[in-house]
Amino acid sequence: MLIPNTRTSAHYRLQADHIREFLNTVHNDDQLRSVLLDAATRLDRLAAETAYRLHFRDENGAQAREEFDASDDAAAISAAELVWRACAETCHAFELWQGDRLVFAFDEARANVAIVPTDHQPLDIQQITLNLEESLQRSHWLIARSERLISETQRLKERIKQTDQPEIHRNL
After folding, report:
1. At what angle do helices 123-138 and 147-164 cross, to 10 degrees?
2. Residue partners of 150: CB distance under 8 A and separation at least 6
3. pTM for the whole thing?
4. Do 12 and 81 fall within a single domain?
5. CA-based, 20 to 30 A from 161: which of 8, 20, 44, 151?
6. What is the DSSP string of 4-33?
7. How do residues 105-125 score in pLDDT, each as one tens digit?
């Protein structure tokens, strides 16, 4: 399950920054300062727990890097696999990191893994996949010109748009 837009790592960092700003105005209350500092530290931890980095690689090294939020490793891995599949003709491997922890590494040459098609994934995974694909296309990385990435992004955009439209029922 992916993190709702209001609970992203950026949201947690912003809240922690606001607390630290307020902390600077508190001078004579050590107990309040301690509580505020603890709250800011917990928010920083939450930000680190939801933030993932996706690195695309080929035989020459890094091809692209994107950051995104997910509630857990499983959601992050699903989205990473789908995005990689969309641009697999330009990169052969990817790594998924959370902070300094390697969550998942995939190398096409050494793996024989089937990736679940995008349209069989939950809508929230499809949405984060679309966000990552669009972000890659806006980047200056070589991978942004991947024709397969462009095509898969358009296809995913249309699929999500269709699922967002309510069905029209007519009485005949």
Report:
1. 140
2. 137
3. 0.59
4. no
5. 8
6. PGGGSHHHHHHHHHHHHHHHTT--S-HHHH
7. 888 765 555 555 556 677 888
